[in-house]
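Running co-folding for zinc ion.
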Amino acid sequence: MEITQTNQKVLQTAKARSADELLSKKDFQSRFWIDVFLKANEINASDIHIEQIKDGLLVRFRVQGELLQFIEYKEEFSLVRNLINRLKQICSLDLSVNDEAQDRSVSFEVTNSRYRIALSPSVFGENFVFRIIRDEFIPKLSELYLPQETEADLRYAMNQKQGFICITGPTGSGKSTTLQSILMELDREKKKVITIENPVERIIPSTLQKEINHKVSWNTAIKMALREDPDIILIGEIRDRESAELALEAAQTGHLVFSTLHTNDVAGIVDRLLGLGVEKRLIADNLLFVSAQRLIQRLCSNCKVKLADGYHIKGDGCEHCSAKGVKGINGRLPIVEYSFYPTPESIIEFDKKNFESTQVKRTLQAECRRWIEAGEVDERELRYWRKSHV
Ligand SMILES: [Zn+2]
């Protein structure tokens, strides 16, 4: 078909229709979504969960670790589909595909935020999770509320020329923030720092940040980075035996290597590395600082309730805390257990119980108790505490 002048104009307009233009339209669908995105920013949500349910659509926000319901939109299927389709247009997702998972990063000027989107089908339709990536202030290491000794040991470790530093914990435990705080305090002018991430969450000046995509696998990216003569390398996540070996061999050959794992605790790091089949000696010779981290909810100092025994529990909420979405709490505190230069024998003759009692400093439980005693954390927190919560 020949493209007439009018047609060409239509084509150009279609191309120029950015997410922001779609979001600023005045129809119901656009207003619906702009409300969702603005509200998520206002209450400082970390994620937006959008689910097509049996008779409608559910929008929830994750705020300080908890899911809060924002909208339950009960309407007939075609109206819900109109909303979903508009959202897919806004995010440049393929409208013709509705039975496959899709991933994408987008940014909206109108909310001044970047998002990592995961779209997946379920029995009732399509579901979205928007991880909000904020270019917000990265806290200094000294602002992470670590005990003095923990901070001093970590600082010592991160100033070594070689070795392996690993942080473990579930998703949302603040591992990335801790690593970003560390990177910001390294001497990045004098040292070559390469990161391999999925996705790159925050920009760290004077580092070479690489993002995994469907063309480059983790292990290829690690090998490529090692050929670029780095002093320090951050491997976003140890995923398998090969990445574990690459990380530890790099640590052995004169690099300082940072990484993360998903395990319950510090002993679990050693257990996992051994379980992956990495040679004991390679682990034993290179572990410098391994830590496990959680975020616990900090009570709102304005409305927390003091009990007769001197401990505190969550209050009903006040103007200070309720505005942020979750009543009675005021942000979260990281708690960290760690092992600093575990002895080679403790790894060669690894026994979880023995490792815990001889090599782990400040267990997660002890750290949690410290904050409870300081009146900063709900007295009931430890009761809910289960090591299996990963
Ligand atoms: Zn309050």
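Result summary
Residues 141-373 form a domain with the Rossmann fold fold (CATH 3.40.50.300).
Residues 28-42 form the longest helix (15 residues).
Job closed.
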